[in-house]
Design brief:
alpha+beta, two-stranded antiparallel ribbon, CBS-domain, three-stranded mixed sheet
Length: 143
Amino acid sequence: MQVGDILRKKAARVATVRMNETVAIAAQLMRSSNISALVVKDVVRTEGNTPVGMFTERDVVRAIAQYGAAGVHMKVSQLISVQQLVSCSPTDTLEHARHLMNMNHIRHLPVIEEYSLIGVVSIRDIATAFDEEATATRQKVPA
């Protein structure tokens, strides 16, 4: 199974935040969309649909733990590492995506095709796909 198979089952909209937004705005976006990660876009350096990082609930917690109430006024750019964006393509296998997540200790992976963001897969998406595949296989096996 490939990453693209998961994306076809998900909503097409990808939640994003600009680097110059505050932690408070990013947290509100995650809450209103009922998600735990946003793709970060750099409005200065990238004109297209190219992500530069991920901002997650963990980043919100880290900002508040380190800086107290002032953490919510920090810019998203102050809390992400632009150089370390880990991504995959829609033709990558789920095993490869899971390996990338495990090796980099992340739970969300942007999916990029031809330098454009086309979606995000989570570790939950991958686990669900593996569970569905296992259930389908068990149902095919005669008792």
